[in-house]
Write a structure and sequence with these properties.
alpha/beta; Nucleotidyltransferase, domain 5; five-stranded mixed sheet
Length: about 325
């Protein structure tokens, strides 16, 4: 029998990435588009366009969407997205109607955590937390080999834990959320503030952007850190410290065996993770008297979300096929009786 494939999509604050994923978690083909953050309809159009383009080249059986937002327990509606215009958006039904394929919608961090548990860093670890550092911070919990979504489907929104009362304003409407101190947005903001102060340590950064501070972004700081720029390294140390403090709090609450750090900011590697481990150990409740969770970088990189979304869609499609076959067999048995 010829293999049928699944399309996974990872929808973030700035881009939509779609890929053809096989049963082993390999991404065989990719497409990318921009996220029209102000228009749910336009975002839906991008999704349909990318899936249709991949479907013209591959035999697609189902679609999994990893969405940066609060997804309900039925994995159909995006209740709220801090960085996008989704508000109680029936995304699954609208996309499914247009594509004529089975579709599931999952929180993007949940999808990434599932991929890491199935194929990546956390294989074999049944007590896993995932922290995704991108435009904001997403989070997810795998407990006993099962994604924990909470009663209403919105568990794991770690980025919106308030760590600094009355701190920086967050896109979610609150102040002092963790993602305002340990995300790509936070990294870029801190770098721009350092440059705006005309600090002596920021002169290389200012020269790098030709004095146009609006061009200072998280990816640029990561690039400069890898080049050995002291200011960039210091900025990552600051963000890493905040990351570690948040992870220590999560370990106090969940006692995981492993914390996987993913998302675009994690590409800085040890510039971020080394200070995070130090801060986590320093702030861990019962430090010195309890086992510590491993803090590791994602093995699947930025593709974890689309791989996980595709794999979850594959599992759901298989479950529905088994249910349909069972219903058919029960019907035949009843007729014979």
């Amino acid at each position: 029998m010829l293999e049928r494939f699944t399309v996974g999509l990872d929808i973030g604050g700035t881009k939509v990435v779609a890929g053809i994923v096989d049963a082993a978690g390999n991404v065989l083909d990719r497409r990318r588009g921009e996220t029209p953050s102000k228009s749910p309809q336009a975002t839906e159009d991008v999704i349909v366009e990318l899936v249709a383009e991949l479907g013209s080249r591959w035999d697609v059986a189902s679609v999994g969407i990893g969405a940066a937002g609060f997804v309900d327990a039925g994995r159909s509606n995006v209740l709220f997205a801090p960085h996008l215009a989704w508000r109680r958006e029936p995304l699954r039904d609208r996309v499914q109607q247009r594509l004529r394929l089975p579709v599931i919608v999952e929180n993007d961090a949940n999808a990434a955590a599932w991929a890491e548990w199935r194929f990546g860093t956390a294989r074999g670890e049944d007590h896993l937390l995932c922290v995704n550092l991108g435009t904001g911070i997403g989070g997810a919990i795998v407990h006993g080999g099962v994604l924990y979504r909470g009663k209403y489907g919105v568990a794991g929104e770690f980025g919106h834990m308030i760590v600094v009362p009355d701190g920086h304003r967050c896109e979610c409407g609150n102040r002092g959320c963790w993602e305002q101190y340990a995300s790509g947005n936070a990294l870029g903001r801190e770098a721009r503030e350092l440059a705006a102060a005309d600090s002596p340590v920021a002169q290389t950064l200012i020269a790098r952007v030709g004095g146009d501070l609006s061009r200072i972004t998280g990816p640029l700081i990561a690039e400069m850190a890898k080049d050995g720029d002291p200011a960039a390294i210091e900025l990552f140390e600051d963000v890493g410290r905040w990351l570690g403090i948040g992870i220590a709090n999560l370990c106090a609450a969940f006692d995981p065996g492993c914390v996987v750090v993913g998302g675009g900011v994690s590409e800085a590697g040890e510039y971020l993770l080394a200070p995070a481990r130090v801060a986590s150990r320093r702030n861990l409740t019962g430090r010195g008297y309890r086992p510590e969770a491993r803090i590791e970088r994602t093995a699947l990189g930025n593709e974890a979300g689309l791989i996980g979304a595709a794999d979850l869609a594959r599992w759901e499609a298989q479950r529905l096929r088994r249910w349909s076959l069972g219903a058919l067999r029960r019907g035949v048995t009843a007729r014979r009786a």
